[in-house]
Structures are given as structure tokens and as C-alpha cells.
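The authors assume throughout that readers already know how a fold can be written as C-alpha cells. A single example would do more here than another paragraph of explanation. An entry of this sort, consisting of the sequence and the corresponding C-alpha cells, reads as follows:
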Amino acid sequence: MLGFTFTMVFFLLILIVLVLNIFGKFFTSKEKASIARAEKKANLITNSVVESVGNKFFPEEIPGEDIAAISMALHSYFSEAHDNESSIVTIQKVNKPYSPWSSKIYGLNVFPH
């Protein structure tokens, strides 16, 4: 009887592991397929926008130095928001009433000498 129950428990554990692996593979394949569909749709939209706009606004290639200068200017502009903070720190003392429920001295054991 004991051998049968051990065998049954191990068999059921192996069965549970197999079922969970199958479900995991099924759901990850569905997730990968939905991600691939979303990327394909985004690529189609991007390509159609690029084709419709074309080179109207930027007829020639923008040099890397100009892109770096613009990005550094934007970074320095947006990072200045945190420089003008006040340096006043206020600390308010909160008085808590004494409560014997939170006192640790009542939980100590007293041993006789």
C-alpha cells in the first residue's frame, strides 16, 4: 500500500510538470505570435509614413554633429528642472502616546536569583 501511494504521488507530480510545460509552451507561442503581428503592423505603418513624407523636410542627410548638439541641448534644458529646488528641510516631531501593547519589557522572562 505504501509503495502504491509513493508511486501515485510521483506519477502525479510528473504529470503536473508535463501539463504545466505544455501550457507554458502554448502561451509563449501565442505571445510571440502577437508580438510578431504588432511589429509587422508597426513596420507597415512606419514604412507608409516614410513613403508619404519622403524627403520633403530633410532633403539631405543630417550630420551626426548636429544631431548630437540638438540632443545635448534638449538634455540640458530638461535636466535644469531639478536644479532650482529649495534647500529648506522641515522636521516635525510627532508625539505618540505610550501604549503597553508595544512595550517589550512585559515580554521578558524574570528568573529568580
About this structure: Residues 96 and 106 are 19 Å apart (CA to CA). Residues 22-53 form one domain. The longest helix spans residues 2-53. The mean pLDDT is 76.
